[in-house]
Amino acid sequence: MIRLTMIHDLVSRIGAQNLIIVAVGLAIVAIVLLVWILGALAAGFYANRLNRSGAWGLLALIVSPLPVFLLLFGLGPYADEDDDRVRIACPFCAEDIKPEARLCPHCGSDLMRTPAERLRPR
Q1: Strand 96-97 versus strand 88-89 pairing type
Q2: Strands (E), 4-97
Q3: Which ranges in the chain belong to alpha helices (H)?
Q4: Per-residue pLDDT at 55 exceeds 70
Q5: How many domains does the chain divide into?
């Protein structure tokens, strides 16, 4: 525990004005570090929202959050080339499915049956 006499000795050696300057400087450094860390977290969450890796948050922590945000904004959402967004409606439940689907993932209907077989109950 810091004694009052130690604080008094420190103030008398350094001077009250210099001690205030050091305290304000340390407070500014602490605020900048806090904003930097929060910006890196926000960049990671923004990258996650764009379907990109959370490693962008680590990059923002190392480099700087501002250029990482600008880079993510320029890149836009990550679109998987394998997942083409063309969808058709299932003839049984009307949910969106891929055109090459053989079974509906929603209702489990066999989509490979002919139209005449679809009318017959199983």
Answers
A1: antiparallel
A2: 88-89, 96-97
A3: 4-14, 16-49, 55-62, 65-75, 115-119
A4: yes
A5: 2
